[in-house]
Amino acid sequence: GGTYDIYSAGWNGSYWLIGSSSGKAATLNSAGNTFTDKTATLNRSTFTAFGIYWNGSYWILGGFDGGVTRVYTSTDTSAFYQQTNHSNYTADPVWAISGDMGGDSGRNFLAGRNGKIIERTGAVNSGVTNTDLSGEIIDFGKQNIRCAEHNGSYWLIGGDAGRLNKYDTSSNEYTDLSVSLNWSGYNVQAIGWNGSFWLIGGTSGKLAKYDGVSFTDINVSSIFGTQAINTISWGGNTGSEHWIIGGSDKRLATSSDAVTFTDRSSGLLSWDNGSGVNSDVLCVDWAGTPHDSWFIGGSNGSINKYNGASTFTDYKSLLFNALGGYYRVNAVKY
């Protein structure tokens, strides 16, 4: 019924949940051909869902609602539960949500503006404990947290002005990596792990490899120029795994080794605002069997399915027909 930005999406193994501004929400079935409007179920016309995460048992939606931090949970999108905020996280948007996929017994992390980060444990709407971790993160000050990923042993948490922390869950200790990264003039926008090393992307086409000990800068200026790197993901069928890196102004690249990169930007379909201005690539994730494809989302409602080789399938018109407008696709997660 209007034009709304799409900021977030997540996958739970059966269907996608897509979040937007003005309380708009929808699901997309596993076949990728049927959207169901969940706006009335969410029933919050001033809520913007900046982050969506499936933790193995239930959905967590985080964002902002009329100047107030807001978090909702749901097991199956038939009902959404508004959660009580931690006393230190009441007036800043939630921008990023991730966790250890432990379900009701797992740990879920919600982070956002002004260096705020909260650990949430408990069931979908009972036995909930919110723990403030904002004071433990090192040298972020009031810088925004932009991304956070876990590799099975520890977290990397990135943000504005080159801020980067390593959080060891076994020792519960933070290590400041900002000086070693040496990106003081650039924001850390995206983090990805392939089982052996990290790739870290940022504004002005910055890309670095981190092996757990040292950082190596990678030059991808021939593809990204000075455009921001917004999303990094590792996936693919066994034996043909590779990186996908997406950026502003319709930039997309693949690489199997983080040494040689292939420009895939020209393959993206309907990747513009309708007036010839390129959309930004904002999110990408690998969807395994039975899809065996990547899903790529961006600004202006741009969304493609990609087989990892040369075939892109455009879903932009399907999403437009379901929601009645073009909304920013800000996050996808399998």
Shape: globular
User: What is the number of helical segments per DSSP (H or I, 4+ residues)?
Assistant: 4
Major sheet characteristics: 4 strands, antiparallel
Q: Label the structural class.
A: mainly beta
Tally of DSSP β-strands = 28
Structural Rg? 19 Å
Percent strand equals: 35-45%
Strand and helix layout:
Blueprint lengths: L5 E6 L3 E6 L4 E5 L5 E3 L1 H4 L4 E8 L4 E7 L2 E7 L6 E2 L11 E6 L8 E5 L3 E6 L7 E4 L12 E6 L3 E6 L4 E5 L4 E4 L1 H4 L6 E6 L4 E5 L4 E4 L4 E3 L3 H4 L4 E7 L6 E6 L3 E5 L6 E2 L17 E7 L5 E6 L4 E4 L5 E3 L1 H8 L11
Keyword list:
43% strand; four-stranded antiparallel sheet; 334 residues; mainly beta; 4 helices; single chain
What would you say this structure looks like, in words?
This protein has 334 residues and is mainly β. The protein is 6% helix and 43% strand. The protein has four helices and 28 strands. The protein has helices at residues 39-42, 178-181, 221-224, 316-323, and strands at 6-11, 15-20, 25-29, 35-37, 47-54, 59-65, 68-74, 81-82, 94-99, 108-112, 116-121, 129-132, 145-150, 154-159, 164-168, 173-176, 188-193, 198-202, 207-210, 215-217, 229-235, 242-247, 251-255, 262-263, 281-287, 293-298, 303-306, 312-314. A four-stranded antiparallel beta sheet has the order 1-2-3-4. Strands 5-6-7-8 form a four-stranded antiparallel beta sheet, with no helix packed on it. A four-stranded antiparallel beta sheet has the order 9-10-11-12, with no helix packed on it. The two termini are 28 Å apart.
